[in-house]
Amino acid sequence: MKLNDYPEFLRVYSLDQCSSTNDFLRRRYEEWKDFLPVLVKTHQQTAGRGRENRQWVSLPNIGLYCTFGFHFPREKPIQLLSLTVGVAVIEMLRQVSGHQFHLKWPNDITYSDRKIGGILIENLFFKDIIASFAGIGLNIAHERADFPETIRDRAISLQMVTGRIYQLEELYRELAHSFFRWLSLLMKGKTSEIIGLANEWSQNDLGRTIRFHVQQKEIQGILRGIQNDGGLTLELEDGRQVVYYDGEIIR
Prior knowledge:
This protein has six helices and twelve strands. It is an alpha+beta fold. The protein has two domains: 11-200, BirA Bifunctional Protein, domain 2, CATH 3.30.930; 209-250, Roll (SH3 type barrels). It is globular and about 50 Å long. The mean pLDDT is 93.
């Protein structure tokens, strides 16, 4: 599927460089709040970050670095937003490449256990509405040497997977359509489709014994699936099944 333009309701802002697209949009929220949804994309981030303020290396012109800003109703399931964005990103990658990308709960995109992208959701809560900022970083044209030495064996790019060259602008358009299609389903309450694909695309981890970092400690358990409310179920060594809403799977 090739899409010629962005969704007509979306305002798109392109930057040569910024610290991070999430920070850029958050700082301008009061100025831009009446014009949402918006997409801010940049050729390079000088201070890209992921969860827990980890650095996200954003080399110029070889990756997708962007944030979607939009209003989210307070009564809708905001806790499923990260999974929804993950599903949208994976759908786009699968469509443009024909390869099987996977979700690593709650917000990483992988290929053969190597990370190709990440999602950072940040929100501002108001009385009647939530201002949401969905940051997405994807490795597109990176070669192995472009990654820091410490993560070269754990990172990958779309070009490394397929051997093909991609036009970043075409990928941004594909991503925007996929993003708002899945966001619309979330807002309409069609969460079973989201959870179903989140579980299907987590097959790399389902049924495996994994290491899990939560509340400053590491535990082990068998990953049994993602619940309807977005929680992750682990079967612990004593046989108990416990649902976690925060934490991180460790490779």
